[in-house]
Design goal:
Layout: H1 2-21, H2 24-45, H3 66-69, H4 77-95, H5 99-120, H6 130-147, H7 150-163, H8 178-194
Helix pairs in contact: 2-4, 4-6, 5-6, 5-8, 6-7, 6-8
Amino acid sequence: MEHLGADFSAESTSKSVQSFLTRPIFILVVGSVVAMWLIEIIDTIALDDWAQGGGIHPRRLDGIDGIAWAPFLHGGWRHLTSNTVPFIILGGLVALRGVRTWLSVTGIIIIVGGALTWLFARNGNHVGASGVIFGFLGYLVAAAWFDRTLKAIALAVLAVVLYGSMVFGLVPSGQVSWEGHLFGAAAGVLAAYALRPETTTNTEPQLA
């Protein structure tokens, strides 16, 4: 009986792990990071860092497509490594609000944040997932304000405790794309506003 119990426990654990690994939320967040690493590996080994030049090139038509590619391109291993854990954690916190929310928030951050970077940032090649990471943080904080739910507030507090120091990344600094950080955060706030819960008003006549 003990042997059967052990087998059942192992089988149950295996199924639980498999179920977790196949959840859409896990696949979306971790899958995005895996894509970043695969691109960096291929770019480093086979392309001699050619791909990382395909980021956002402000106010240049040949750089506008970088809005879509920039979050997946990085300026080397150190850059990618520094973005990996914050993306997983903050992206995971956003994903706790649902798959559709994660997709919507991420899409708004990439498109709006990237477009603003293309329009207003300094000339150069803006790459990296940090704009999206700042967008996740901006969304989580703003969602707490707009939603006023315990879950939203708890996620915002956790995000601030873990990564509140990221605000220093909004300060203009050398080769760092602080514009991408700023516009990513702004896009995250916009996403929170756009996806805020609908407020309904009672239009029924009131009897005196």
